[in-house]
Amino acid sequence: MVKTKAPSKKKQQKRGVDFKKIRRKIGRKLPPPQNATNTEIKSKAIILPEQSIASEKAGLAVSKKGLTLKELLQQTSHHNVKVRKDALIGIRDILLKFPAELKLHKLAVIEKLRERISDDDKLVREALYQLLKSVIFPGCKEDSKGPINSLMMTYIFNAMTHMAIEVRLMAFKFFDLLIQYFPSSFLLYAEKILQNYEDILQKNKFYLQDKGRLKNALAGLVRCLSLLPCSNQEEGDSLSYNDATRASLHAFDLDRSNKSTAVICFAGLSGVVNKLTDLLPVLVSCFQDFSPLIHSMAHLDAQSFDCMLFLLQSIDLVVRFFGHASGKNQDDFQNLPSAYQKNSPSRHGQSISAVTLKKLWDEFPLSPVHCLSEKDGDRYFMLNVVITEIFLQLSYGSELSPALLERFLEFIESSLSEKIFNGKEAGKVHHEKHLIPLVAFIPKIIMQVSDAWKSRILQAFTTVFQNCNPESPMKLTCLTAVEEMLLPEQNLEIFDDQITWIRELPNLLVLLGDKHPLHSKAVLRLQLRVGQAANLNSPLAKEYDNMQYIQHQQYTECDPTSGVWNKQYIIQDFYCTHLNGTVNYGPFMRLPRDIQELSVCCLYYFSFLDKVLLQSLASCCICHELEPFILSRIIEVFHSAYKAGHIQIADYISFFITLLSRFQVYPEKIYPTEKHEGKSNRGTFKSVVRAVCSCLSQIGDDVLVLQMLEKIVLDEISHKRPVDNMYGLIRLLITLDSKPTRLSEQTINRLSEVLPEYFLDVVNNIPEEDEESTKLLIRQTRHYYLLPCFFLFDRSNTLLNQILKVMESLMRRNVSSLLPHHKGVLGKDQSSRILSIVSVLLLMHGDLKMQKLLMPCKTEIRNILESMRTLESSEDIMMTIEERHQIRSACDRLTAAIISTLEYH
Amino acid sequence: MTDLELVIASSATDAGIGCWDLHTGAEHLRYRSCSSPSHGLTCVGGRFLASSQLRESKSSSSSILYWSWNKPQVEVKSFPAEPINPLVSNSDGTYIAGGGASGDIFLWQVATGKLLKKWHAHYRGVTCLLFNDDQSLLISGSEDGSVRVWVFDDLLRGKAKQPYEYSFSEHSLKVTDVVIGYGGANAIVVSASEDRTCKVWSLSRGKMLRNIVFPSIIDAIALDTGEDVFYAGGRDGKIYIAALNAVADPNNNFGLHILGCLSEQSKAITCLALSTDGDLLISGSEDGLVRVWNTKNHNIARIFRYAKGPVNNIVVIKQPSLLSTRGSVNAQVPSVKRHGVSLAPPLEKYANSADENDYKAVIGPRIDPDRSVEASYISIQTLNNQIIELQRQGSSASAEMEIERLKLDRSRSMQMILQWGKKFQSLHQFCVTELLDGEQAGNA
């Protein structure tokens, strides 16, 4: 500052020299004194060369035009329309590019943007709509929605009452968008919103001449109304996921309280109810406005059709809400003070709807005057369906003129049966889709109409049920309807139709295969319900049992027109069928586990289980692919069914014996466990054996059961089954037998022939190994397989005696039979057989209890030793040195073991 | 006396009814000739034992038998119209309900033996019946897998709008056992079924709260007194402990919500009961043993040997005063005879519609043996009058009590106000003096 001052002083002085004459006027200010300090600051433009747009925003998120979010938000309230619009588009850019920005500044963004809801310019609002729809709402969906709701709603309401009709309509669109993403917001503001809708539909009708706008507004209304609590969306599955994971049952749970908010709102909804009652006539009159259109116009254009459809849907929803409310009335309104009760929706429902909707009935059925294309026909059909729905929704319990009822029933019947004659495929699917709601009403119709109508409608329904595609949603709806009509509580007296439906079930199960578990499940559920509900000796129960048998004649006459389902399946085909010795597994084997379980449960309710069905289930059971869980369920269910007298004892026993003898255990070699892809079903078989033994022993007194089973089991045993099956059968014997044995002498003789073979098989299947670690395990496994036989020996000494004799003769026979032919060549397997016999004996000897049992059989054992010695020492037989040594050492071991215990006791 | 509890067990084979003291293990009389179906044994109001009977053959008729405490022989035989499986009586012993094999439920009045009501309750045979803790609801389980809840009052008056209060039909197979917790009509119900599941239902909400899948079929359940867990006896011989209000370790080896199990190498568990204090769990099994478990440490406390055949019913009751110990049976019998109290009339086979509205006055048998059975008949009119009088008195009395209570409240509030007033005054005084003092000090 000092420097700059100095030159200016000099100039002044110079000037003073040039012009000496100084004229001083009076009143002029004195010049500043010489020593005055100049306080003026002068400078040229401030230039900061470093500051450029690019570098400053390096770290920030910017739009394409290089503006930050903050700047853009400021620009949204710019007075220039174009700037505002660009700003919105810019925001969209930023948020798309940097989703994190949205998370951080969500509320700030919304707070600023909401002001634009009532923007005067159409383009700006449109841009805002797009912005909210595509970016912001999807982005904040999972976050807490409370603040967003309230932030938006105030401005939306503002806009809804805006002067400009455009803005007002747009506001409804915004609202529609909002509840798409945050459905809960409707119930909070329901009253106000409905009021607004009513206003716009009623007072500003002339604005709505444009169908497109009307359509938009109505679409929003339909969405709103569908959020009203109504019977369709009842709390859903009775056991939600949350329940399953929650720890405590009694504690107050948030989930529940949330759910009850709906109810609370509902209780406080009396205002809404009033609003709806006001709205209903408005909707109806709106609809009426269209009716001249129908009569005059040659064909229905898409937009007016949509409008009409939306109107009808809204009416439907309102009526449904009333219906639901009156249904709920009993439960929920009980606890409310009487003031509410007076106002309860049911009364409204009854009174208004009857009067206002009468106009609607007058219009029905909407039929085109001129002949028209198929598409138009479909449209009229859809409208008619919705009207019928409204009618049915209302008609319960209330009195209506029979003529009116007649008209509707006529329509229902014709629309149900029409689809059969209406040829085209695409049309059919379309048609079916719209019929679904009607079909759901059929049980209720049937309960109310006269007999003549009942049979007509049932016939139409049955044809629909039989002819619709098994995989279609229509089938599911039909099944639910059938279930409702089948329960005997209804006392419908429609046995013929019921029988036809039941006959359809096995067919359906087979046709559905394993690709449509949802449908299969529904069918099986129905089957189960029928089975449970069938009273003994009622025609229903008979028909349920008949699912096991084929009925040709009735079926062919039942459905002559369509040749689609030629073959009538029976329930066996669902499980498994035998054809010329080959086994064809049905869909049962490949369905998910819960469905399998369901179908097994169905079996219990057959009052008589046919042999053929048992057979097919047995072949399912012995199949490897069946899960062990389902196998055990089948055994359990059969056990209960037997106890309830649904299976004959002979069938029951043969089922179990088949299971024991035919079950294929893999891997064949028990030890070492050769990896059979790491799997083995030996454990499964063990549990099967356990289950079978306990089931059979519960049939009755063991003595009698043994008498019955003895022969069959023995036959199976002498068929030389694999080791595991033999084990199972022997275990069955010992469970039923007692000490001393009750087996007949004949049985013992036969056992003594078979068992040595079994012993050798066991030893062969579980070869010895040299490793110390596995030795014990091998011993235990072998012991496990021999143990049931030890029990037999314990109970019958003669059996042991005989078996020892047989073993000796086995040894001897080899030698004697060999001698004449091959001059004494003892084959490899013979020598190994001898070794096996020795190890069996050693195993027996290893068991403490068996030691005692072996004591009386000294002579037999000595004989065995004797024959071994002769064999070993005989010169006639050629043996390799190793073999000879092995036999020798085995012989020594046996002698040592036996002498130590037997000889000196 | 109140602490003494008895364990009573019966079986499907003809092994009689075993009766033990729970805490000492002493065996009392064994009542003869009883072959009961599951859930077919009940103690009627502590006065006597009743059991439905299995039929030996198709031809013989079904029966319900009564035993008095002091005689091993059957005292009263009744022959209902169809075989009855489950039998239950309410806690006062005034009514007996039995479930038939066809799905009908019969309701008898004990004192008169009259069949009050018979209705078709289920599609298939009824398997279990029980009353809730305040006797206002009757709950039945059936072979068709449904559990239904009936309002007892509506049944008696016969003017129910809806046949049942709830019908839970989520079970896919026969219901084997049902238990109910405390809390009247807001209690929880636990049902077990042959589909290997137990389901917990809420009576207040009328829906299923929990579904627990077990590793085997559950034939018997017992609900813990605190309702934190319930015990489920399986066909595999184990007693599983399932969580209601406890947190289960999700990765244990039993399954979701199953906390653990009590097991001893036994055959299938067929019935379970808890002692009144909930410390002892009594289980009966197919092998004929009745085991008493300590629920705290999960050990076996005692074993009663019942018979060779399977046990299928266990009931725990307070020891009735009529029951004498073994030694003094002979001393007691004559006294009973002297009083001439017959147990109860046999149950009627069919409802007699003629005198349905004509209630007769009845005297229930006295439980107290010391007092003579002298009672005057009271006609129905006087009784009705008395009831009305009582109600009136009751209402006026309650109104008075309410007024009294309100008065008390008022006086208490008045006192409070006075106190507050005083406090305020003193506080005010204090502040004023303080201020004044301060000012004076300032001035000075």
TrEMBL record, chain A:
Its main location: nucleus. It comes from Anisodus tanguticus. InterPro entries: ARM-like (IPR011989), ARM-type_fold (IPR016024), Ipi1_N (IPR024679), TPR_TEX10 (IPR057949). It is found in: Nucleus, Nucleolus; Nucleus, Nucleoplasm. Residues 500-875 form the TEX10-like TPR repeats domain. Residues 150-208 form the Pre-rRNA-processing protein Ipi1 N-terminal domain. The keyword Signal does not apply. It comes from the Eukaryota. Keywords: Nucleus. Belongs to the IPI1/TEX10 family. This is Pre-rRNA-processing protein Ipi1 N-terminal domain-containing protein. GO terms for cellular component: nucleus. Residues 1-14 have a biased composition (Basic residues). Residues 1-38 are annotated as: Disordered.
Automatic annotation (TrEMBL), chain B:
Coiled coil: none annotated. PROSITE patterns: WD_REPEATS_1, WD_REPEATS_2, WD_REPEATS_REGION. The keyword Repeat applies. InterPro entries: WD40/YVTN_repeat-like_dom_sf, WD40_PAC1, WD40_repeat_CS, WD40_repeat_dom_sf, WD40_rpt, WDR18/Ipi3/RID3. The keyword Cell membrane does not apply. Keywords: Repeat, WD repeat. WD repeats lie at residues 119-150, 168-211, 262-303. One of its GO terms (biological process) is DNA-templated DNA replication. SMART domains: WD40. GO terms for cellular component: nuclear pre-replicative complex; rixosome complex. It holds the Pfam family WD40. It comes from the Eukaryota. This is Uncharacterized protein. It comes from Anisodus tanguticus. The lineage of its organism: Eukaryota, Viridiplantae, Streptophyta, Embryophyta, Tracheophyta.
